[in-house]
Amino acid sequence: MTDVTTDVTSGSEADPTDPGRRVLLAAPRGYCAGVDRAVVAVEKALELYGAPVYVRKEIVHNKHVVEQLRARGAIFVDELDDSIPEGAVTVFSAHGVAPSVHADAEVRGLRTIDATCPLVTKVHREAVKFAAEGYTIVLIGHAGHEEVEGTMGEAPDHIVLVETEADVDRLELDGPDKIAYISQTTLAVDETRTIIARLRERFPQITGPRIDDICYATTNRQAAVKAMAQHVDLLLVIGSKNSSNSNRLVQVTRELGTASHLIDKAAEVDEAWLEGVDTVGITSGASAPEELVEELVQFFRDRGTTEIGELRAIDEDVRFMLPKPIRVELAGAG
Q: Does 172 qualify as catalytic in the annotation?
């Protein structure tokens, strides 16, 4: 059930005759527990060990967050190579890494902090379990995404990747009684269900995880924009282009017939998008900080908007513990 509330920070009631556009904020939006854990892990590592702290890949898929951490002394690298000195503190991103990356870090003598989201770790464990039991594993995900690469690295000889129903139709697998599926955590919920249904049609004996792999935050943010789509003329999604869950929010909204655009920040709003628009919806991907939402709201306030509302689809109260090396250091410092 959704709840629509209005909050006008000027302290006065919204005037229904005001010519300014109405802005409606989606809730939940923004940081999920896994992103918060990963970002704080890098921040704490910088505080505890000092700069530089190396980070393999982007810690989360958001340009703003990466630039802020880079300014504080984080050095982002594509791979563990000779540019990282022996013994350096090195953080693995929220998207997870293959076992080969852990092994490489050990050979190089790096002090690693694994900031993999626990929900991604769950998928890794499923891959290992199914592979050990002799299953061929069908991974539903996007080719080239870091999470997919990390998951496939857990059992490369046992996993095949599909992105669409058409991919499922082309599958030729041995041993139809020993097939399992798992999925990337940041996919479109409805599309993934359709692909799973097609897998079940083709391989009736297929098995899957006991609990869906798509994470709670992805599911909740998609539910929020579905609820919002009928109340707005345009939905702006704050998130970076390489953010899978942010792109899915745009996709889900457009599939419902509502215009939607992905932007990194308020400065990217195209005036042409706003022509004939009375109500603008705003949400943010799971790796976008709330300050970017506040910046976009201020953009509309500056244009004369006075009515700022919120549509709440579901409440979230999920927290993850920081990676163990950080917890140990903090406990010792305390």
A: no
pTM for the full predicted model? 0.93
- Placement of tokens 């505080």 in the chain: 47
Is 124 exposed, middle or buried, given 0-12, 13-18 or 19+ CB atoms closer than 10 A? buried
- pLDDT, tens digit, 9 for 90 and up, residues 26-64: 999 999 999 999 999 999 999 999 999 999 999 999 999
d(CA 155, CA 132): 9
Residue 9, pLDDT score: 36
* Distance in angstroms (rounded) separating the CA atoms of residues 319 and 55: 22
Set 58, 126, 147, 149: catalytic member: 147
pLDDT band at 332 (very low <50, low <70, confident <90, very high): confident
The rounded distance, in Å, linking the Cα atoms of 117 and 198 is 28
Q: pLDDT band at residue 3, thresholds of 50, 70 and 90?
A: low
Three-state SS at 197: helix
Mean pLDDT of 301-325: 96
The two three-digit tokens of residue 42, written as one number? 């890098």
CA 208 – CA 137 distance, rounded (Å): 9
99 touches 123 (CB < 8 A): no
- Dist CA 86 CA 72 (whole Å): 21
CA-CA distance, 34 to 37, in Å (whole number)? 5
β partners of residue 180:
137, 207
> DSSP readout, 66-106?
HHHHHHHTEEEESS--TTSPTT-EEEE-TT---HHHHHHHH
* CA atoms of 219 and 226, how far apart (whole Å): 11
| Helix pair angle (324-333, 33-49), 10° resolution | 50
